Amino acid sequence: MKSVVYLLLGVLILVGCAKPPEQVYNHPKTGQEYLTAHVDECGEIADKFGVINMSPVHQYPMLDMKDCFQREKVFEYCMRKKGYEQGDLIAIIIDENNTTINLSDSILAVGETSQVTISFSSAVGGLENSDLTVENGSLTGIGTADGGVTWTAIFTPTPGVEDSNNVISLNNAGVIDSVSNLGTGITVSNSYAIDTLRPMVAIRIVETALGDGFGNYAGGSPNNSLVTFTFSEAPFNFVKNDIFVANGTLGKLVRDDSTHYHAIFTAAKDFIGKGSVTVDATKFTDVASNDNPAAAPAIVAIDTLRPTITASLDSADSHLR
User: Residue 95: CB partners within 8 Å, gap ≥ 6?
Assistant: First the structure.
């Protein structure tokens, strides 16, 4: 009779021995990717070895009986060996109220980057670059070094952009918490400004041809001309020494307003050819410290070589009569 009671007890224990729920476990490296397969594998091992020896309580040998406590211990040991950590069944809400995105540098110019840090209130899995919307820039692969609480990437701004209000947005539905609940809402980063638009200058010599000012070239062309400098944005620390002049000289550089300057170009004397005015690369910057590319030279035709007369006497008439 006693053996029958123990047999019935064993059946009841076996029926009640459900394997621990998957949601209790998370993997800091692989997230939930292989969780179901590993749970099934560890469940089979736990079913096989989750038993206790009942023989000592009887006067005769008896088969080992399933034991919920023993089965759970075997299951947990198997999951730990596979790299999983045991969490709890309390869902940690992931939404825009407990998730933050911050850029270490919020003002970016040409050649600059910024670290982006995404922080959650607890470890999450499944976060990928596709869950993020990045304005006027790109991110390196997002990754975590602390098991999923903090994620980082490097932001690089798009070249040729000037925009003072940009953000990075996270769709929280792309991440899961330790009990496999999806996040909700949109988390928005702090605003960042981008100025990767390099300042440029357009140069124009008003006259197309210069002479000596005495009617020698093109029907009396002057020997000088107005030169204008038009900037795409206000230059910082632009001075006359930033200008390169060939086959002529440049007078005083005058600032008309924040993006317009002018000067007078005077052609070189006794010269036939072309004169030019240009500004080489990296001679000035904008307020964001972006330097300029080389400007297209302004060209002017020059002929300031005055004609001369050479006289000679014919040999037949070399003697005066």
Answer: 172, 183, 184, 185, 187
**For residue range 98-128, what is the model confidence (pLDDT) as tens digits?**
899 999 999 999 999 999 999 998 888 889 9
Tokens 């998957």, located at residue: 22
In angstroms, the CA 304 to CA 271 distance is 5
Element (H, E) at 3: helix 2-15
Comparing 99-195 with 201-303, is the CATH topology the same? yes
Q: Is the pLDDT of residue 28 over 60?
A: yes
How many Å apart are CA 276 and CA 297, to the nearest integer?
A: 6
User: Residue 23's closest CA among 176, 133, 169?
Assistant: 176
- Mean pLDDT check: name the lowest of 138-147, 188-197, 208-217, 294-303: 208-217
Q: How many CB atoms lie within 10 A of CB 26?
A: 24
In this structure, which CATH number among 3.30.43.10, 2.60.40.10, 1.10.1420.10, 3.40.50.720 belongs to the domain 201-303? Answer: 2.60.40.10
> Residue type for 181, please?
N
Task: Please answer whether residues 174 and 184 qualify as being in contact, where contact means their C-beta atoms are separated by less than 8 angstroms.
Answer: no
pLDDT(170) > 90: yes
Tens digits of residue pLDDT in 257-278: 999 999 999 999 999 999 999 9
